[in-house]
Amino acid sequence: TPDASPGRILSVAPGLPSTDMTRTVAYYRHLGFSFSAPGSSAAPEEAGFTIGERDGLELHFALKSDHDPARTATWVYLGVEDADQIAAEFRAAGVRPRRDPHDTDYRMREFACIDPDGNMLLCGSPLRP
After folding, report:
1. What are phi and psi of 123, to 5 degrees?
2. H/E stretch holding 22
3. Best exposed site among 61, 73, 78, 89 by fewest CB in 10 Å?
4. Which helix (H) or strand (E) holds 87?
């Protein structure tokens, strides 16, 4: 077991590019994320940097007007409790998975969706025995 020293890593918050923060915030709000814009008096939709939070997980978004999804790719793996349930929730919010939930050879149930800036969310839950 890892040592419980003060130097341990407690969380991770991936940074994702956005070419249109209003669109990004709207997209992720549909997926159940809430937003803040720390250090800014602007609303998250109008800020250059926002944090989306859901279930204790944070995604950090930075406005990058020169981001080209065809040239750069970002993906984030989200460990979820039930991939089928989350995929159904995303569909109900109007987001079609790029890949529907499927079983992998490494014992995970996964699906993928891609946001308007080309960032991929790969969501997976362990297969039940």
Report:
1. -110, 130
2. helix 21-30
3. 73
4. helix 83-92
